[in-house]
Specification:
Number of helices: 18
Shape: globular
Structural class: mainly alpha
Strand content: under 5%
Length: 463
């Protein structure tokens, strides 16, 4: 049961996709391989973002404060904000299912840093407020208040040149709250800024994983934030319109450089073979990010929705190479062992003999047996969704697509898994998988599958 329900805060409105901006962004992007700037002005320009509209006036806050900890008036926590902190600590970890299992302390670490960093303090509150208040259909006064204060203190810290892990965390949660709010222009600019801050920290330590082929020396929390930045890059790639993405791709031959920090940060995980699972998750995420870079580099060559003959042939070649690499990931030992364990569980499950439709069943498709390894189920869904994404690379959006039984098969499996696991109260990273399933079903003549996905994503009839 979610924290919202435990506190008697059952949502009164639907939790849908945040309001998106126009797909044509005017944001000026930075080259992905851009070196860290000589001074802080360039980073500050990237962090600078759109001002909240004046019509959303924030009223003066007069209620008495709770006893502050630490004793800094700028970081005093008002009683009305305690629920946001509780939500952040207990629920925000669910935005990334694999991080929840493999790096269970990363939310707590962000929270701990917020004690001594005012920008992070307000960005944590704003990121929580946009979810909780939107979920309950309340006004956004607290969100806009903390959002404006976040911008103010970010500018101050950037101007002081005090670059550290808390600043990186503050920029990330600022980017996250803007993405949840639907201000994609601001979110893209903040993701650019996040990369520049992290790159600055690497260079500050005399270490750049892009230039010196060595293990990153910044704190593991910063590398988790780096991964969140990559995921944000993926989610926001449709808004780039051919402009360079914020984070450079991590090449397949560079992935081993990250094993060390993942082993270190996963030590507290109770997951067996946590480092192997972290490496598998990292590999498939980097693979999708590279695929997004390819797609983004080709989109600017579109003419009237199609590609010139030579560009189309090159795009098809890259697409087929990506599908081969995609299939190779499935053969990783940790994945195959989990698959074997799942097959053993299914062979001993008797619930599938029941022909009645239940709440955890996708339409009239056979229900999945109880999931024993949620992390494997999540990564399998992610692997399915990536195939759907890649298989549609070079098709015109306004023309019927050639049928692909593998796309439909994977979309069904994603939906069966979501029917079993249910949906949470706020958008999370794996929503991307169910969206890809919906895209695949859109080419089918049977629309019940698409209607089911639409109703669940909008929480009309979901758990």
């Amino acid at each position: 049961m979610s924290l919202l329900k435990k506190r008697g805060l059952t949502p009164t409105g639907n939790v849908g996709t945040p309001r998106g901006s126009s797909s044509s962004s005017s944001t000026a992007s930075l080259p992905c391989d851009r070196p860290c700037p000589e001074n802080e002005q360039e980073i500050e320009e990237e962090i600078e973002t759109i001002t909240t509209p004046s019509v959303q006036t924030v009223t003066a806050l007069t209620p008495p404060s709770i006893v502050p900890f630490p004793a800094n008036p700028e970081r005093t926590v008002e009683s009305k904000d305690m629920g946001y902190f509780s939500f952040f600590l207990q629920e925000m970890v669910h935005i990334a299912a694999d991080f929840k299992d493999l790096f269970p302390t990363y939310i707590r670490d962000s929270f701990t840093y917020s004690f001594n960093n005012t920008a992070l303090h307000h960005s944590v509150l704003a990121a929580s407020a946009i979810i909780v208040d939107k979920c309950q259909g309340r006004d956004m006064i607290r969100f806009h208040s903390h959002r404006q204060q976040t911008y103010q203190y970010l500018r101050q810290q950037l101007a002081s040149g005090d670059y550290d892990a808390p600043l990186a965390a503050a920029v990330f949660w600022t980017q996250y709250m803007d993405m949840r709010y639907g201000d994609m222009d601001a979110a893209i600019k903040h993701n650019h800024g996040l990369f520049l801050v992290l790159q600055h920290l690497l260079n500050k330590q005399g270490n750049s994983i892009w230039q010196r082929n060595t293990r990153p020396s910044i704190p593991p929390l910063c590398m988790v934030i780096w991964r969140h930045g990559i995921r944000s890059d993926i989610v926001m790639s449709p808004w780039m319109n051919g402009n360079p993405m914020s984070f450079p791709p991590i090449l397949k031959e560079e992935e081993y450089l990250h094993r060390g920090w993942m082993e270190e940060y996963a030590r507290v995980s109770i997951k067996e073979h946590a480092a192997d699972w972290a490496a598998a998750s990292f590999a498939i995420e980097c693979f999708l990010h590279r695929a997004c870079h390819h797609a983004n580099s080709f989109i600017k060559h579109r003419v009237n929705g199609g590609f010139p003959t030579d560009i189309k042939a090159e795009f098809e070649r890259i697409k087929q190479a990506l599908i081969i690499e995609h299939d190779e990931w499935w053969n990783r030992p940790v994945i195959q062992q989990a698959r074997a364990n799942e097959l053993y569980t299914m062979s001993n499950d008797t619930t599938n003999n029941d022909t009645t439709t239940s709440a955890d069943q996708f339409l009239d498709y056979p229900p999945l047996p109880p999931i024993k390894n949620p992390l494997f189920a999540w990564l399998r869904n992610f692997w399915y969704a990536i195939y759907i994404y890649i298989s549609l690379f070079n098709y015109r959006p306004d023309k019927p697509r050639p049928p692909d039984s593998r796309r439909i098969e994977y979309a069904i499996e994603i939906s069966r898994c979501f029917a079993r696991t249910g949906f949470r109260n706020f958008p999370r990273w794996d929503d991307w998988c169910i969206i890809m399933a919906g895209v695949a079903f859109a080419e089918s003549r049977v629309y019940e599958e698409s209607k089911w996905i639409h109703s669940r994503v909008n929480m009309n009839d979901g758990p």
